[in-house]
């Protein structure tokens, strides 16, 4: 379903989307078109895009074609979703109960029931994903 959502394929296009999207939330999904988890998220985003069209603009960004933004936003897991409002990057609170814990650290602690502050080196190894990403642990 990723073919239904507009794609940004260069830094210039991403810059233009950030600068020109006003009075709406800009949703940038960073990932790869052929990745199965990205395709799952793209399906969800495409199904909701018409309902959200008055309040959000959703774009797909290929991590391999926009390495500047991939590095700038520290995209290390795909898919990753970045939000803007009126050109300003929005930091999203995923309900962490303790300050200083990242989203996947909090989810990892919740699902494993451990008191450890540090998750495994890779959330993929324990089957956890952050944000809108799939969580398959269990």
From TrEMBL:
This is Thioredoxin-like protein 4B isoform X3. SUPFAM superfamilies: Thioredoxin-like. It comes from Mustela putorius furo. GO terms for biological process: mRNA splicing, via spliceosome. Gene3D superfamilies: Glutaredoxin. GO terms for cellular component: spliceosomal complex; U4/U6 x U5 tri-snRNP complex; U5 snRNP. Belongs to the DIM1 family. InterPro entries: Dim1 (IPR004123), Thioredoxin-like_sf (IPR036249). Coiled coil: none annotated.
């Amino acid at each position: 379903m990723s073919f239904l959502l507009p794609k940004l394929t260069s830094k210039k296009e991403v810059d233009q989307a950030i600068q020109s999207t006003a009075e709406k939330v800009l949703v940038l999904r960073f990932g790869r078109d052929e990745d199965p988890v990205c395709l799952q998220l793209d399906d969800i985003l495409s199904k909701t895009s018409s309902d959200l069209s008055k309040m959000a603009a959703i774009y797909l960004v290929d991590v391999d074609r926009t390495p500047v933004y991939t590095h700038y936003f520290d995209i290390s897991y795909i898919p990753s979703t970045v939000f803007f409002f009126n050109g300003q990057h929005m930091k999203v609170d995923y309900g962490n109960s303790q300050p200083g814990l990242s989203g996947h650290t909090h989810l990892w602690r919740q699902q494993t029931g451990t008191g450890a502050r540090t998750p495994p080196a890779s959330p993929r190894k324990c089957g956890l994903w952050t944000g809108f990403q799939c969580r398959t642990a269990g």
